[in-house]
Design brief:
By secondary structure, the chain is of the alpha+beta class. Helix content is 27%, strand content 24%. A four-stranded antiparallel sheet has the order 3-2-1-4, covered by helices on one side. It has a three-stranded antiparallel sheet with strand order 7-8-9, with helices on one face. The protein has a two-stranded antiparallel sheet with strand order 5-6.
């Protein structure tokens, strides 16, 4: 294995210096930021280059193609619209991809989700018609597709009935960084709700 200093271009066009460790077959294996202690595997859309000039040229040509007229149109339209999705016709696909679907704004929530979140912020959860306080939770088991099962201190098991309830639990208690999960805990099959 050997290591070399390279320049990384992320999928959103950020340019940073990294140290790349190559395997015995001379393929990039992992990388870390300069003076960093953590190592990362390359993501599908990340590219690395020998120097900053090559990286900047790649960004200019592939990620952020510059068009004066579209920049003017963007600045004009920015004051007229509220969402980046309303500017899909003038922004590069890479920016639309980076800024949509990944972030959820409180205004994007429906009234049911807002009620769930408002109560959760007070430490009160209403999951699958069972209301309990945060202090009553003994532990949470993580299943497939980030689905959870809550066990209360009195032994009651609570499973979210939809993605909104599941997401609230994950937001408030954190996700599953362990990389393992219970195979018997799965998202419920969609049924007609009463």
């Amino acid at each position: 294995m050997r290591k070399e200093n390279k320049i990384l271009v992320t999928d959103c066009g950020s340019i940073v210096e990294i140290v790349v460790i190559f395997d015995d077959d001379k393929n990039p294996y992992i990388y870390s930021y300069i003076d960093g202690d953590h190592f990362y595997r390359f993501e599908e859309n990340e590219k690395f280059f020998d120097n900053k000039e090559q990286a900047e040229e790649y960004v200019r040509e592939n990620i952020i193609p510059f068009d004066k007229n579209k920049v003017k149109e963007y600045l004009t339209k920015r004051y007229e619209v509220n969402s980046i999705s309303e500017m899909e016709d003038i922004l590069p696909d890479s920016i639309i991809k980076e800024c949509t679907h990944r972030f959820l704004h409180i205004c994007d929530l429906g009234w049911i989700q807002c009620a769930l979140l408002r109560n959760a912020l007070k430490g009160i959860f209403s999951i699958n018609a069972i209301t309990f306080r945060k202090e009553e939770v003994a532990y949470i088991k993580h299943g497939e597709d980030d689905w959870v099962e809550i066990t209360l201190k009195d032994g009651t098991k609570v499973k979210p009935r939809n993605e909104d309830e599941n997401l609230i639990i994950c937001w408030c208690f954190g996700g599953n960084p362990s990389g393992v999960y219970y195979t018997n805990i799965k998202k419920p099959v969609e049924t007609e709700e009463n």
